[in-house]
Amino acid sequence: MKTEKIDGATLDTWTPEEVKAALDAREIVLIDVRTPQEYMFEHIEGALLFPMAFFDARALPGQEGKRIVLHCGSGVRSEKMAKVALEAGADRIAHMEGGFGGWKQAKLPYVGTEMSTGAPKRMG
């Protein structure tokens, strides 16, 4: 995990493997900031969808029991939204390095689309 201080707040950057371990241990809330279409085509099982287009940092859940980790396709949008959350008053937030692409590159499991039927299918 990489940590960066921004105006007294903390932005953490987690690897896909760190996110997977914390998700399995139920230590985090993973929030996908991609579009609904991207999410429907393939997503990390258990990730909540809060698209960047509708992102309101004030609506994020508290982090008393679980940390929040944001992710997108490559890490660019999630880092941007994490910084928005810090500007809105969050004292600490995280995002996933490399985004969903990094997750797939690490060969971690996800829910994709079975192209022959259009049905969801566990992949990875």
TrEMBL record:
GO terms for molecular function: thiosulfate-cyanide sulfurtransferase activity. SMART domains: RHOD. InterPro entries: Rhodanese-like_dom, Rhodanese-like_dom_sf. Gene3D superfamilies: Rhodanese-like domain. It comes from the Bacteria. Residues 24-112 form the Rhodanese domain. PANTHER family: THIOSULFATE SULFURTRANSFERASE RDL2, MITOCHONDRIAL-RELATED, THIOSULFATE SULFURTRANSFERASE_RHODANESE-LIKE DOMAIN-CONTAINING PROTEIN 3. This is Rhodanese domain-containing protein. It comes from Pseudooceanicola nanhaiensis.
